[in-house]
Inverse folding.
């Protein structure tokens, strides 16, 4: 769709952040235009229809404390359901080549005592970390210069239990822990109210619920309300900004606006041609918040066969080429499994052809759950680092030494405002954080327009 017109406010990006901002601005009676590069809305939240079965290929969970996302779902009458938790969580024992139940952690019983002191230390650090301002923790500067990998080598000296903890944390950050600072980890832990709520079981944690019909349902409803104010296939390549206003050009785009909200991941902000150039501090910042790497596969089966043996469908494989599996089956069926592989393992999968990638993941599922996993009714997968307009997932991960100034990602520059889950002070990296950032950006714009 071409977008050649003037507007009061232009919003770049039709993910939850951009759509939330645009809806608030439109509700206040101002003219707004949303420019989305893809041919769909939702951004990093994407629900694929597989013969009537919704498959969430991107963000999908509603955490226990994600009240903004819940309020938006309630507004449109969209229900949620608890993430299935039948049976015990499981882990793949590569030495015995068999699946084992986690009691209580996904590792051999002998290894648990070596991990508990590290978990207790993280809990102590969490209590010293303000959830909405982690950079104000007493040891923030020291934590930001220390990688998680370095910290774990000190606190969990044995390789095998450390490998399990590392694999679990990589699933949360989507990046190798040598590239993640302890301050970034503590921001995640403090925001979720504890390590186990962030990476552990679904109940009262970040993975508590799933959305009936798919996680992008509320995004599509917001887009419906905005109507022809949402332009798809409209990639913005250049932004000219100054005292007179903002001019946007790109693929079928020639728009002038009084103000603009840029609701894009940091690497996409850096990829735009800016006139005048972004200030040096911001250009350096967005270049130091690269996206994580994640490959996701969704497989549909006629029934949840894994429950016959008491397995939950949640599997962690610390040593294998495929990291994890989750049961995300909706009530009443069909049975659905979601595989998530992050960090370096995801980049290895991304280098394969689509057929090879699917085969490798399905082979891992067969190894974990048995031959019934061999032939799903439907299968779909995506490596998010290959997505042109995301360049990775789940979110941007600040390099060590970067999180303290990353709070400035949300700071406006003249007539340019910024949104996106990376700019949120709470629920950063989640759909809820994207919504919060859109509300904040809209409030900034409305205060100036009014």
């Amino acid at each position: 769709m071409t977008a050649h017109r003037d507007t009061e406010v232009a919003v770049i990006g039709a993910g939850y952040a951009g759509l939330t901002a645009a809806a608030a601005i439109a509700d206040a009676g101002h003219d707004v235009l949303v420019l989305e590069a893809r041919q769909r809305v939702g951004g990093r939240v994407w629900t694929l229809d597989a013969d009537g079965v919704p498959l969430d290929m991107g963000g999908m969970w509603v955490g226990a404390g994600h009240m903004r996302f819940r309020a938006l779902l309630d507004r449109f009458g969209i229900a949620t359901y608890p993430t299935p938790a039948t049976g015990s969580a499981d882990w793949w024992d590569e030495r015995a080549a068999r699946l084992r139940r986690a009691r209580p952690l996904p590792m051999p019983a002998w290894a648990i005592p070596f991990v508990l002191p590290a978990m207790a230390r993280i809990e102590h650090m969490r209590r010293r970390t303000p959830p909405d301002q982690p950079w104000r923790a007493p040891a923030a500067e020291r934590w930001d210069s220390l990688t998680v990998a370095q910290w774990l080598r000190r606190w969990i000296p044995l390789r095998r239990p450390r490998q399990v903890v590392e694999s679990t944390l990589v699933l949360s950050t989507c990046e190798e822990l040598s590239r993640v600072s302890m301050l970034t980890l503590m921001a995640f832990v403090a925001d979720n109210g504890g390590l186990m709520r962030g990476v552990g079981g679904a109940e009262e944690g970040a993975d508590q619920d799933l959305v009936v019909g798919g996680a992008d349902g509320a995004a599509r409803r917001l887009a419906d309300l905005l109507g022809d104010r949402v332009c798809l296939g409209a990639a913005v390549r250049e932004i000219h900004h100054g005292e007179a206003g903002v001019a946007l050009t790109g693929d079928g785009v020639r728009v002038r606006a009084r103000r603009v909200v840029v609701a894009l991941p940091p690497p996409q902000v850096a990829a735009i041609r800016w006139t005048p150039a972004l200030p040096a501090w911001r250009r350096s910042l967005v270049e130091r918040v690269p996206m994580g790497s994640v490959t996701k596969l969704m497989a549909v089966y006629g029934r949840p066969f894994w429950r016959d043996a008491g397995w939950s469908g949640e599997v962690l494989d610390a040593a294998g080429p495929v990291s994890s599996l989750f049961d995300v089956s909706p009530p009443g069926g069909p049975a659905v499994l979601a595989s998530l592989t992050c960090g370096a393992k995801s980049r290895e999968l991304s280098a394969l052809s689509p057929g090879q990638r699917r085969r490798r993941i399905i082979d891992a599922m067969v190894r974990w759950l048995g031959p019934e996993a061999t032939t799903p009714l439907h299968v779909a997968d995506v490596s998010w680092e290959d997505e042109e307009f995301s360049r990775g997932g789940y979110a941007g991960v600040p390099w060590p030494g970067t999180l303290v100034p990353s709070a400035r990602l949300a700071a406006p520059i003249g007539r340019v405002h910024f949104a996106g889950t990376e700019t949120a002070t709470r629920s950063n990296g989640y759909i809820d954080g994207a919504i919060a950032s859109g509300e904040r950006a809209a409030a900034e714009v409305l205060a100036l327009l009014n």
Remarks:
- The two ends are 30 Å apart (CA to CA).
